[in-house]
Amino acid sequence: MAFVAPAGTPISPITFAVSLARGLGSSAEIPLGEGLAAHAKHRRYWLVSTGRAAMVLALQAMRDLSKDPQRVEVIVPAYTCYSVPASVIKAGLKPRLCDVDPTSLSLDPEALRKFDFSRVLAVVTANLYGIPNHLQSIEAIARERGVWMLDDSAQALGATHEGRPVGGFGDVGLYSFDKGKNITSLEGGALVASHPELSAALDRRHAALTPASATRTATTIVKLAAYATLLHPTLYGVVRKLPGLGLGRTVYDETYPVERYSGTLAGFAGTLLKRLPTLTRGRQDNALALQAALSKVPGVRLIDVPANSQPAYARYPFLMTDPSRRAAVLEKLEAAGIGATASYPSALNDVPEVARHLPAVDLEMPGARQVANAIVTLPTHAYSPADLPARVAAAMRGSVA
Ligand SMILES: *Cc1c(COP(=O)(O)O)cnc(C)c1O
C-alpha cells in the first residue's frame, strides 16, 4: 500500500542527474558553501561529513579559544536530536540541559536566564521541525553572559525569525544534509560564522580533518539514487518495513567519524539549495493545510510559533492533549498510509547515555518530558497528497475510543 514518508526531499531523475553532474565537476562544493554563508548572512563556511561532526568541530574551536579551563559546559535543549549531546560529549565537553517550553518547543528563555553560567562555554538551539526557537531572546542572554551561541539549524534551513535567517543567530550556524532535512545528499553538514578568531580556530580544526573517503562517497551516491526512487509513496510503502534500513529509529551514538564533506555530495546539495525557496514554500503550504484541518480535531494542541517567524516545516508537529491516546493515533495514521512519528522517544535526561554525564539538577525536565510523551509529527514534503489533511483528521477522529 502507498505510504507517505515522514520527511524527505523529492528528487526527480533530472534533478538527480543535474545535481550529480554538478557534484562531479571541479570546486563543486563552492556554490553550497557560499550559498549557505550568504543565506545566513555570515562571512565564512566550513563543510563537514555530517551535522553532528560539524557540531564537534564548532565546539572544539570554541574550546580552543577559551581562556578559562573551567568552561566545559554546553547548554543544550532538554528535547532535541540525540546527536546534539553526543557531539558535546565527543568534543570532550559536558552537556547541561535547559528545559524547553512545550507550547513552542523552544529552549525556555526564562529557564535559561536562571542558569548558572560560571562554567558554561556555549548554548545550543534546536529549531526542531523547522520552527524557530525564541532566537532573539536566547541570543541576547548568550551575549549578556559572554558565552558562545551555536544556532542549530539542522532542521530549519529556509526558516526566518524577526526577519533574520535561522542558522544566522549567535556566533555559529549549523546545517545538516541528512535524509530527513530541508535539503539532502543523505549525509553532510555545514557551519557558517563571521567571528574572526572563531573563524581562524575553525580553519585550523577543519584543515586537520581527513578528506572524505572516495569509496564511502560512491556508496552514498548509490544510496542517493535509491532514496530518490523510493521516497515516492508507491515504493516507500514497499520498502519501509525492510529491517536493514533502520528507518525511523533513534539511537544514541558517539562513534561517528569527523571528516570533510565530500565535494561531490556538496555539489549535489548545492544544486538542491537553489530549489530551497520552492521546497520551503511547498512545505509551508502543506503545513498550513494540516494546521487548518487539525485545529478542528479534538484532543490536538497546536504548537505556538514564536512571533515574527516563518517556519521551514521539515515536518509538521503537534501535541496530544492526552498522551495516553498517542499510540492509538499513530497506529490509525500508519494504517491510513501516513508517515506519522512520535519523533525522539525521550527527553535527554531520560536517555541513559546522556543522563550519566548530567548533574542531579538536570534530571528533572518536565517540559521536555511532556513533549516526548505527547508529540506527533506529520509529513510536509512535496509527495504529500492533497487530501492528506482530510485523511489525517479522519484517522484521528477514528481513534477516539
Ligand atoms: C539531524 C540533526 C543534527 C545532526 O545532523 P546529522 O547530519 O544527522 O549528523 C543535529 N541537530 C539537530 C536538531 C538535528 O535534527
UniProtKB/TrEMBL annotation:
Gene Ontology molecular function: transaminase activity
Q: Which family does it belong to?
A: Belongs to the DegT/DnrJ/EryC1 family.
Its source organism is: Steroidobacter flavus
Question: What is the protein's given name?
Answer: DegT/DnrJ/EryC1/StrS family aminotransferase
> One Pfam family name from the record?
DegT_DnrJ_EryC1
Q: Which segments of the protein form a coiled coil according to its record?
A: none
What keywords does the record list, in alphabetical order? Aminotransferase, Pyridoxal phosphate, Transferase
